[in-house]
Design a protein that fits this description.
This is Outer membrane protein beta-barrel domain-containing protein. It comes from Thioclava marina. Keywords: Signal. 11% of the residues lie in helices and 59% in strands. A twelve-stranded antiparallel barrel has the order 1-2-3-4-5-6-7-8-9-10-11-12. The chain is mainly beta.
């Protein structure tokens, strides 16, 4: 399952990037490995840290009159050390795929996005760990500041793992800043919060919250290839009494096809990462 999912995503991202390059788009594909160290107050995590792989792609073009169109996707899949039970591992699959449309004004870029996300869902004991699909839509802004760009996104996420039980229905907010620090080194720092007000591990007023901070650095080997590393710290709270945390470390490479992407706006994954913890914390 892991290899099939990642291979399918990689082929899709590569096809998009290659086709986009031919059309003089900004485009890239990225892939690598990661580790995720986890703990929880309500699960018996066994085997942490877990290891996995990720793949992603992005393509954007100007469509006239200052308007921009972009598509992006990313899938992360980690192993479970043979546990085959989310109660011992937490979520194993997360992904997001989206379409972005907006316009570049003199003061900033303003746009909107719509997409779908993957998360580790749950119906019953025989279906624990299945990959479920959710949706998201929202607004985004990006503005050039100093040697980089500040950006923000606010959207709504719907990720239903089990009706009237494990449901994430709420907002997702991202704030970030990315800059080219030197000719070869770049960085991207962003904070994200996702909140479901009336459903999470259960419905009927039980809330769930996800908070994360991520620092990514990249080193340009040449004008097409970057080495990318990132550290992400994530905190999940389920109705006050249950908590989980993750520390994820990523290492990969990013290859540009045509021009390197100049925007840092991607479909937010926080709501889907939160949704993957609904069943384990229930």
């Amino acid at each position: 399952m892991t290899m099939k999912l990642l291979l399918s995503a990689a082929i899709s991202c590569l096809a998009v990037a290659h086709g986009a390059a031919a059309a003089d788009w900004e485009s890239s594909i990225e892939g690598g490995v990661f580790s995720t160290s986890r703990s929880s107050t309500d699960t018996d995590i066994d085997g942490s840290p877990f290891y996995g792989a990720y793949v992603g792609g992005y393509a954007a073009t100007e469509i006239g009159g200052g308007y921009r169109f972009a598509i992006d996707g990313r899938v992360e899949k980690n192993g479970d050390s043979g546990n085959n039970d989310v109660y011992y591992t937490g979520p194993t699959t997360t992904g997001a795929f989206g379409v972005h449309v907006g316009r570049e004004f003199s003061f900033a870029y303003l746009g909107a996005y719509a997409g779908a996300g993957l998360f580790t869902g749950y119906d019953d004991a025989s279906d624990a760990g299945r990959t479920a699909v959710g949706t998201t839509l929202g607004f985004e802004v990006e503005k050039a500041i100093w040697r980089g760009k500040a950006y923000g996104q606010i959207g709504y996420v719907s990720a239903n793992g089990a009706s009237d039980d494990n449901e994430f229905e709420g907002y997702d907010i991202t704030l970030g800043y990315a800059a080219q620090v030197t000719d070869r080194f770049g960085m991207n720092l962003f904070l994200e919060q996702a909140y479901s007000g009336s459903c999470f591990e259960d419905c009927g007023g039980d809330w769930g919250r996800y908070r994360a901070g991520t620092l990514e650095v990249n080193y340009s080997v040449n004008d097409k290839l970057d080495v990318v590393g990132a550290v992400s710290r994530r905190l999940i709270t389920a109705n006050s009494e249950d908590k989980a945390d993750e520390t994820n470390v990523y290492l990969g490479v990013r290859m540009a096809f045509g021009a390197k992407p100049t925007s840092n706006l991607r479909t937010p994954m926080g709501g889907f990462q939160a949704a993957g913890w609904m069943a384990p914390l229930d």
